[in-house]
Every structure is written in C-alpha cells, then in structure tokens.
Design goal:
single chain; mainly alpha
C-alpha cells in the first residue's frame, strides 16, 4: 500500500464522515419507499448516495450485494491510506469480512454457484476443488484465508488470526481501547446467537457501544475501526432494504 498519512489528519476525516451518518429520522423517510426505484432515489438524496449511485432496479439481489461488497473493499482501502503506514495493512484487512460467507462456500466440495464465479474478489479462486481453490489463493491478498478453504479452520478464525498478526506496536491507550472493542464485538456476537425474532435490537446496542468507544478511544486508530463498524451496520441496513424490495419486485413480476 503506497503513501503514508498522518493520524491526526486521518481522524479528522473519519470524524467528518461519522458526522454524515443518517439519523433514525432520515432512515425512516427513506424506508417509507416500498418501491425499489423510489428507495434508491430516496437514498441518493442522503450521505449514502455513493453506495447506490451505480445501482439500478433491473439488477438482481446478487448483483446489488456484489456492488456493496466491492464498494466496501475500495472504501476501506481508501480510509486505510489516510493513516500512518504502520496502521494501513491492519485497517485494510477490514475490507474482507463481507467476503467470509463466500470463502466458506469455497470450502465445500461441490461446484460453486455462478454468482460466486462472477464475484471479482472470490471468483478467480472458485473453480475446481477446495484444494485447487486454496492453492490458487497463495501469493494473493486472500492467502491468509486459504487454510479456511482447505478446511483447516473457519473463515472467521482465519481472518481474525491474520488481523491480530497485522496489529502494529501500539501505546497503552490504543491497546486498552482495542480490548474494549474486542469485548463489544464478543458481546454483539453472543447477542446475535441469542436473538429470536429479530437482530435489530442487538445491532442498536452494538452501534451504541461503538459510538461510546469512539469517544473513549479519541486520538487512536481504534476510532477508525469503530467508524467502519458503524458504517458496516448502516450498509447492512441498506443491503436489507435493497434486497427486500428487489425480491418484492421479482415476486410481483412472477405473479403478473
């Protein structure tokens, strides 16, 4: 990753982006649109406009999800570049959690579906057997996940192990904030496992913890991770809105 930023400059940009997040009232206005075209148009009037700018209502759900994954990867890479060089690889690795479900499918012996083959990140490794796929990932950015494709570990564990390995030397404040962040993630994971009807209350609790941690971690790179976590929650909500309306359009077409 070329270039090197300044932490103070990076955090200034992060806080500016954080200040653009949609509040609940804005979400409700957008979500009042039941039609996919209207929903996209309403979203284009918000700070999330760049995420839907290239989308259209003729795309299927897989294409919409693929667009969000690709944009997320580019966005995280750009945010990482704002930071000092020693933090860039650790932050840039946050680009890949949205791809872990696809990686899990590469560990299965059967041929992968066409929509995975079409994915620009995972698709090049998808043909053949899990052994072929794992070998094809060597010497690529996804090499740390090859063990998961080979069935030696889970994608989440492989991703987490490499993220820990990338962590640069950090001062005491950063380490303490990172410990709090890890605890918040663990609590969120446990809450999702226990959720019965909907996971939305758990996501709201997690968002609250991340906002609080942004204040506690002020002046450290953990602020950036919290911001990206909050953005990921927003994009999860956006994805849900797009997919539900996309499926509704397809169902209407089938019954027409």
């Amino acid at each position: 990753m070329e270039g090197e930023g300044n932490l103070e400059y990076a955090l200034t940009r992060v806080y500016a982006r954080h200040g653009q997040r949609l509040d609940e009232a804005a979400w409700r206005r957008v979500e009042a649109s039941r039609d996919l075209n209207h929903y996209m148009a309403a979203m284009r009037a918000t700070a999330l406009a760049p995420w839907v700018a290239s989308m259209n209502a003729q795309q299927d759900c897989r294409a919409l999800e693929s667009s969000l994954r690709s944009q997320w990867r580019r966005h995280v890479d750009g945010v990482a570049r704002w930071h000092p060089r020693e933090w860039q690889a650790w932050l840039a690795w946050l680009a890949y959690p949205p791809f872990l479900n696809l990686i899990a499918q590469l560990a299965r012996p059967e041929a992968v579906p066409s929509w995975i083959l079409a994915d620009p990140v995972v698709g090049p490794f998808a043909p053949g057997t899990p052994a072929n796929r794992s070998a094809a990932m060597a010497d690529t950015p996804l090499a740390p996940l090859a063990a998961a494709v080979a069935g030696q570990t889970t994608p989440r564990a492989a991703w987490s192990t490499h993220w820990q390995a990338l962590l640069p030397h950090a001062d005491g404040d950063t380490r303490r904030s990172l410990d709090l962040l890890r605890r918040a993630i663990e609590q969120h994971d446990q809450g999702l496992l226990q959720a019965v009807d909907t996971a939305e209350p758990q996501r709201q609790k997690f968002a609250l913890r991340l906002r609080l941690l942004m204040r506690i971690a002020a002046g450290t790179a953990i602020v950036t991770v919290c911001h990206l976590g909050l953005l990921a929650l927003d994009l999860e909500r956006l994805r849900s809105g797009l997919v539900r309306r996309c499926l509704f359009v397809r169902a209407e077409a089938e019954h027409a």
